[in-house]
Amino acid sequence: MANIHDVARVAGVSISTVSYALSGKRSIAASTKQRIDDAVLELDYRANAGARMLKGARTQILALSAPLHAGTHAPAHMTFVLSVVTAARKYDYDVLLLTQDEATSGLRRVVRSSLVDGIVLLDVSTSDPRTDLVRELGLPATVIGIPDDTDGLTCVDLDFERAAELAVRRLVDLGHREIGLIGQAPLVYERGSNFPPRFRDAFLAEATRLGATVGFTPAPEESAGVRAALDGLSATLPGMTGLVLHCNEPVQSMVLDLLSQRGVSVPNDLSVISACSSFSTDHLNPPLDVIPLPADLSCTRAIELTMAQFAGDVEPHVEYIDPTYVELGSTAPLTSRP
Length: 338
Prior knowledge:
Elements: H1 4-11, H2 15-23, H3 30-43, H4 49-54, E1 61-65, H5 74-89, E2 94-98, H6 103-112, E3 118-122, H7 129-137, E4 141-144, E5 155-158, H8 160-173, E6 178-183, H9 186-190, H10 195-209, E7 213-218, H11 223-236, E8 242-245, H12 249-261, E9 271-277, E10 289-292, H13 295-310, E11 318-321
Parallel strand pairs: 1-2, 1-3, 3-4, 4-5, 5-11, 6-7, 6-8, 8-9, 9-10
Protein name: LacI family transcriptional regulator
Pfam families: LacI, Peripla_BP_3
Keywords: DNA-binding, Transcription, Transcription regulation
C-alpha cells in the first residue's frame, strides 16, 4: 500500500511538502499542489484519505494509542485515557482507543482505513516505533511524553526533571542529607518507558550537586518486593531521614504500612514525598506531600496542540508543564526532631 514516501517520489517533492499540502498547514504553489493531488489519486494514497483531507472533510475521530504493557498500572493509565477523551469532547471529537501492545500495526490500520483525523500517543518509550510511524503518516499528532528523539514531533509532558529537583531541594532545604528513592516496577524501566529514568537521573544529579547521599531502588507491586526495596535502601542508607516515592499508589501504601509496622513515624523519623503521582495522597496514612502528575493538564494541552495542527498554527516542538508542590505535613526539618 502506498505511503507518503511514494507520493513524494511520484510528485517529485519532499515528504514535508506532501504533508503540508495534505494538511493545509502551509501555502503550496498551485503547480506543486496539482502534482501532489495527481500522485495521491494515482497511488490511492491511504485509501483515499489524502483525497478526503484535500476536500477538507473530517471524521471527528482521534486515535489514542495507549498500549497496555506488562507492568502498566491500569488505574493511572486509564486516568490519562479518560482525560484525553474528556478534552477531545470539548472539540466535538470522539476517541478511538488502541491498546494492543504492538501499537504500530493498529495505527497503520486505522489511518489507512481513513478512520481518524489525528493521533495522540500515550506512554511512549525512549525509543518508540510509534514516533517514526507518526512522522511517516503525516497526520496531526501529539505525543504525551518525551522520547529520546523529538525531531519533527509535537510533545507535551510534566517536567519530570524539574519535579525530581524540586523533591530533592525540598528535603535538602529541611536539613536532610541521606535520601532514598523508591521508583517504578523494574519492568517499567526495562521496557524503556520515558518518564521513570528522566525522574531518576535528575534526582541523582541534583542530589550530587547539593552534596546529599542518595540511594535508588525500583519496586514491584507486591509486598515482598516492596519490603525488599525498603530493606535495601535502609541498608544502603542507615542514616536515611528523607524518602521520595516515585511509584504507583499500592506501592506507596505498602511502604507507609511497613514504616508504621517498624515504628517509623512520618515525618518525625522520616520525611516522605510522593512524586509525580496521578492520584490524591490525602487519603494515605499519613497523607503525603505530593508533586502531582496532572493528567488533565497534559492531556488537555495535547488535544489543544492537535487541534492547532489542523489549523496550521503550531510547528513541532516540546512543551513542559511546570511541577508544583503540595504540602500535607509529611516532611519536617531535621533539626526539629527530638
